[in-house]
Design a protein that fits this description.
Layout: E1 2-18, E2 24-44, E3 49-54, H1 65-74, E4 82-88, H2 98-113, H3 120-128, H4 136-139, E5 143-146, E6 151-154, E7 163-168, H5 175-180, H6 191-201, H7 207-210, H8 216-222, H9 224-235, E8 240-243, E9 250-254, E10 267-272
Parallel strand pairs: 3-4
Antiparallel strand pairs: 1-2, 2-4, 2-5, 5-6, 7-9, 7-10, 8-9
Helix pairs in contact: 1-2, 2-3, 8-9
């Protein structure tokens, strides 16, 4: 069983408050990036095995979310040993949710390969146990995400036809670094309300002033190059540019296919939504 594990971007990310369990309440819109993906292959084997190719990830195999996903499903269902192969193509430490997507696709692949007949709801619940944004990739559609990111609801947001540029510098931002300097705040109007205003007028030019990523202020202070790259996106004609998730990837949305160049050490992905 082979599945593509695409990544995501965040359109807006409000960090509302720190919770008693140590997590933070968020409000964000997650958008699938269907043409930037890892490839997950799950096949029967004599023993449980994890194989990785492509981009080298600094993570011990036993801590990889793919194996954790397999072990979680095996705790509920009678599964044979499998070989999980991850062809890593999505940059990590980027805020693109690559590892979370990989875990979700392992759950889906096991469900299909071994005819477990899990419902979408059960797979979402399993994925949510592995990470805050992992559940998003089970349904893999534009969603308004709240709670710590695992509470999802569809949102009427049509980005079809826009061009997307995703870039990542040669360094990442850890989740620990991202949250260590964050200053939670509840905006006067929710992200959903602000987006609703823009949808009613079909005016996306207001997004840059009204929709922000709450991680950017302190992450940009620590990594000034990110602020420079964001400005490059805007200067090249992006109607909206922001950091995705906790970084270090950034993205720009364009009405027309952009012509923009970056230094050789920058990862670049361009597609039409």
């Amino acid at each position: 069983m082979k599945l593509n594990a695409n990544c995501k971007i965040n359109l807006g990310l409000d960090i509302l408050r720190r919770r008693e369990d140590g997590f933070h309440d968020l409000e964000t819109v997650m958008i699938p990036v269907t043409e930037l993906y890892d490839v997950i292959t799950v096949e029967r084997a004599d023993e449980v095995e994890f194989v990785q190719t492509g981009i080298v990830v600094d993570c011990p195999p036993e801590k990889n979310l793919c194996l954790r996903a397999y072990n979680l499903v095996r705790s509920r269902y009678d599964l044979p040993p499998v070989r999980i192969t991850l062809d890593k193509r999505v940059p990590f430490g980027a805020g693109l949710g690559g590892g979370s997507s990989d875990a979700s696709m392992v759950i889906r692949a096991l469900n299909e390969e071994f005819k477990l007949e899990m419902s979408v709801r059960e797979m979402v619940e399993m994925a949510a146990a592995l990470g805050s944004d992992t559940a998003f990739f089970i349904e893999n559609r534009v969603q308004l995400c709240t709670g710590r990111g695992e509470i999802m609801q569809p949102i009427d947001l049509d980005l079809s036809g826009l061009w997307l540029v995703v870039i990542k510098p040669p360094f990442g931002v850890s989740t620990a670094e991202a949250y260590s300097g964050v200053r939670p705040a509840v905006p006067a109007r929710s992200l959903a309300e602000r987006l609703a205003d823009d949808r009613s007028t079909d005016d996306r030019t207001t997004w840059q002033k009204q929709i922000a990523n709450g991680f950017e202020p302190h992450i940009f202070t620590a990594h000034p190059r990110l602020a420079e790259l964001k400005q490059t996106l805007l200067d090249s004609g992006a109607l909206y540019a922001a950091m995705s998730g906790s970084g270090s990837a950034l993205f720009g949305l364009y009405e027309r296919k952009p012509s923009v160049e970056f230094a050789e050490d920058i990862f670049v992905h361009i597609q039409q939504l």
